[in-house]
Amino acid sequence: MNNDNKYNNYYKKWEKKIKQGIIMSILFTGVGGQGIIKSTTVLAEAALSSGLDVKVSEVHGMAQRGGNVIGSVRIGRKVYSPTVEKADIIFSLEKLEALRNLNILNDGGLVLINDYEIVPVSLFFSKQEYPKNIIENISKITKNFILLPANDISKKLGEPKASNIVLLGKLSTFIPIEEKFFIKSIKKNIPQKAVEINIKAFKEGRKY
Amino acid sequence: MEKKELLTGNEAIARGAWEAGAKVATAYPGTPSTEILENIAKYKGIYSQWSLNEKVALEVASGASIEGIRALVAMKHVGLNVAADPFMTLSYTGINGGLVIISADDPDMHSSQNEQDNRYYAKMAKILMLEPSDSQEAKDFTIKAFELSEKYDCPVLLRTTTRISHSRSIVILKSRTEVNKKDYTKDCKKFVMIPAFGRIRHKEVLKRWKKLADYADNSKLNKVYNSGDNKDIGIITSSVSFQYAREVFSDIDILKIGVSNPLPKKKIKDFLKNRKKAIIIEELEPFLEEQIKAMDLGIEVAGKKYFPQFGELGLAALRKAREIFFTEEKQKKRDLGLENIPKRPPVLCAGCPHRAVFFVLNKLKVRVMGDIGCYTLSVLPPLNSLDTCLCMGAGVGQTLGMEKANPSLKGKLVSVIGDSTFFHSGITSLIDNVYNSGSNLMIILDNRITAMTGHQANPGMGLSLMGQEAPVIWPEKIAKAVGVKNVRVINPNNIGEFEKAVKEELANSDFSVIVARKKCVLLDKKEKNFRIYIDMDACKSCGSCLKFGCPAIEFRDDSYTINELLCTGCEVCIDLCKFGAVKKKILK
């Protein structure tokens, strides 16, 4: 699937908006353990080294134990609030969590979804099913979404844990920050022995 | 070139302590404050330690301050309740080396039992309080707090909230300033608070209060942001609310309060001069609002009229308020029907040894007085355990109270408490049970670490914050030493043996302690040479394994399976299945 034609003006539009002083808000979501906080850090430090102002918000504690996790990154010439009111992009490492957070998607906003399901444990013991029609429901709310098999891609690369970086690669194509700053940030924030494979994962996501 | 880094508020406070030349730092872990000490421990030149609880942490820091060096103590908001005793009188004695107390409040209770507003503590103690609004200020204010503490002979409270502590923003790093140790001179009238000296010191506190008020009025930490043509209205705000206000009310002048105790009343009065209305934007209690109203400025002062007194504020809450008082067009809200999608509550990990404990207690239908830690999650389905959870240590005392209120509950009362929590505040209530002839059962859930806050060392581990070896303190030895006759140590994942022990201890007439000892599964992951599976030919689809609530036991398309990736091989579910359908297969 190549969405470049449909979304190729997104990068340029935001390059202009940021110059005008508008703040870009990205909401990160998924399930504890998927690398959400790491994703926010890599984006935020790329923004920092590209010379933009940036703020990140994350919540620790009880949420980590298999619960849903939310983080946000806001970038611009000057950023005030660390939290998001309306997200210009939703980055979700899990399908159900993408749907759950759609209510804060900005008009014209974009949703990046990892084509991956993690069944909430509470569904097992209440003998309920994981919703089957998530993508259908999402498409009723917005047409601006990209479904990407980040887990399959990272597995093929031999690093199943890098699915967050695959999706981040795709995200990077919509954010007015040059690729080299992302690479620099990956080198800084990923353990040395996994840097190379994560850069591969990032590039795979970028070209998807 | 100056070095810029993206730091959380907590990392910035740690950096600030280091740059300010602090030499001792203490804390008890508690979200959202934990990372302050974890980060301080990475710097050379500061001695840091986990204390047993916040009271001891503050006392250790105060001792270091009296000896003449700069000391910092960090805690979550409810931690200051534990430390309130030394805290209140430290205001009287004052300090020698600078003493900074961090209170990390948790509006919206992301990981807390209440959302109390600790700004009132500073007011009650009549000490200086600073409130940063981002990470740069978290660092700068920490450094300033040490200077002010020494200048005014006053402990300084630096109050953050979860959004300040856990948000990252850009911080400019500087080098450390070494601060010479001050001399200690014995001074009974200052540090020995007998009534006669206390009376003298109280008067000093009142004198200091006036000086602090002057400082607040002239401090650059309280800053006016003139931005609008609208001079009828002025906004007064502090902490993260300032950031929200700058975005939503970019057309209105703002006074940002950095020194929020004592309030800069003269500055506030000047700011509001010739204005018709003051809007106060603050999370939780109307701390600023009530004091500004009491100044009787003859203009309308409004705050909680527009903003909730609970939870966090945010851009949306401010936007909503703006729509009301400017009668602006409301942003359209679409109903997306997302309310009914399945929730994803946090759960105990697969293989967590706490799960077996609560499964057994449920089965035995006993009342369980709880405590604070990962195991508090056992209140959620399917375990649905716990009758109470009040604060750290409380369950052990509550159990004794219930027993005294209703002796017929004998054999049906259990308190549970974690290992770190036991050291924090369970020992005193354990002794209370022994002293007052309690006959209930106390279960210490000893997973060999402080797990909930992200795996910090504790006195049971033989390891200090700075990574040094420490004596191991065993809860069962403490229990025996204070006179408990029935003390057992059992691995709760041996669920049959554990159940038998609980039954026996509930049946005897004395107070009993069971130490349920099994290492936190996150620290105990081993390569396993077997796999656990469900034999669907033997399975009767009774669903009883699901009642265990293990994330590795899955039910899909009318079939039960064990998720191999999640299963840690604790084998408890093998014992739970009456039909022997859960099986173990050795892998070659």
Number of strands of chain A: 6
Query: Gyration radius of chain B, to the nearest Å?
Result: 27 Å
Sheet bearing the most strands of chain A, described?
A: 6 strands, mixed
In round numbers, the mean pLDDT of chain B is 95
Strand content of chain B: 15-25%
Distance between the termini of chain A: 7 Å
Query: What general outline of chain B do the C-alpha atoms trace?
Result: globular
Helix tally of chain A equals 9
Number of strands of chain B: 23
Question: Spatial order of the strands in the main sheet of chain A?
Answer: 2-3-1-4-5-6
| Biggest chain-to-chain interface with counts | A-B, 50 and 54 residues
Q: Which CATH architecture of the largest domain in chain B would you pick?
A: 3-Layer(aba) Sandwich
Shape of chain A: globular
Overall pLDDT confidence of chain A: 92
**CATH level-3 fold name of the largest domain in chain B:** Rossmann fold
Low-confidence stretches of chain B: none
Strand order of the largest sheet of chain B: 3-2-4-5-7-6-12
Low-confidence stretches of chain A: none
CATH H-tier superfamily of the largest domain in chain B = Thiamin diphosphate (ThDP)-binding fold, Pyr/PP domains
Helix content of chain A: 40-55%
